[in-house]
Amino acid sequence: MYYNDDFRNSDQYRYTNRDQLPHDDYAPDPNRVPVQPPVQPKKQGFFHRAAVKVTALILACAVAGGLAGWGGAAIAGSGSNSGKTTIQQSDRQPVTVQAKKVDGQTKMDPATVYASVVNSAVSINCSATSTNIFGQQTQTASSGSGFIITEDGYVVTNYHVVSGASSVQVTLYNGDTYDATVIGGDSDYDVAVLKINASGLQPVTLGESADVNVGDTVLAIGNPLGVELRGTLTNGIISAINRDVQVEGRVMTLLQTTAALNNGNSGGPLIDSYGQVVGINFMKLYARYSTVEGLGFAIPSVQAERVVNDLLIYGEPQPEPLLGVSVLQVPDQLAEHLWGIQVKEVTAGGAADRAGVRAGDYLLAADGKETLSSADLLRARWQHHVGDEMTLTLWRRGEILTVTLELTEAVEK
Predict the structure, then answer these.
(1) I need a labelling partner for 313 at 20 to 30 A (CA). Which of 58, 192, 264, 342 fits?
(2) Which listed residue (190, 272, 310, 361) is catalytic?
(3) Model confidence over 33-64: pLDDT tens digits?
């Protein structure tokens, strides 16, 4: 392909052969200067014209750019100080986070919750001595988290954190470390109580896990992966309540949370937006062949509180009382603004049977607190020991009754 001004026909610009014209019969004057034919200006090609235009454009841009650069330099120079570069800096003042007293009424942002509770969170370091198959003594080390429950040094953690340990040490947030004594523990609820020789400590405030709702903000404080990361804060929400999880052959009713829990978080506090401990961080769910995130679990504070009180008072967990009744999990509406859970079965000769409870009755309340699920009845039972009395409010064919159960039998483990 050729451009239009790229003439390649050899006939172009070719003069006619003068020899083919008639010749004159006289000789030209030797002194006469021959007249040269006028030279026609040659038409410029496209590239030549384009090059000229581009050159002119470049010169124009150069002149304009020089003027613009001179103008910009003049403007910049007018705002600078002796040619120095000025870096803009924010004048925002840092916010000082003040720790608040946890009263269960004041809602706080995560930074304030952390400042108010972090001194109650502790790191727990354990060592254990064992004998290997060659008869040699070996030592292993492990770590977990915990929290202070009394000013004089009682600490709560998971039972599995200290189980089998030959020595236990507790490190406070300020770095002070104390040898700890294991007061007792309950492997079924995975709760243990330790004691350190210290005073004037800052205890946590236990909240009511029964008041927690799905979607509530919660925070976890602990030392994931070891003491070097003690005091780490993670946050999330409550993603499920009363979640039944199979753990080593037993079913545990737990709080499910999206707060990040890792190795070393076990035993640390799960805290609500009011700064109250509503659970003990327990475990993170793992899958063998896939990555699982956002599936952490905590022991509800209502369960932990009963075990802790037993360990502090009796030195060991006390058996739970047997009610002798089973109910459906969800309620039925009996009348306007009246709901109850149906009694499915009554154990012959048990506490409920002796009190007059019948299959088909509807349970409205336990110890005066409304029961809208089987978990509500279970929470009421956790508040009692063998030998206590418990009241139930029933609905039977339109009539409301109140009966009293004498809790003389214990749940078999």
Answers:
(1) 264
(2) 190
(3) 454 555 555 445 444 454 444 444 444 444 44
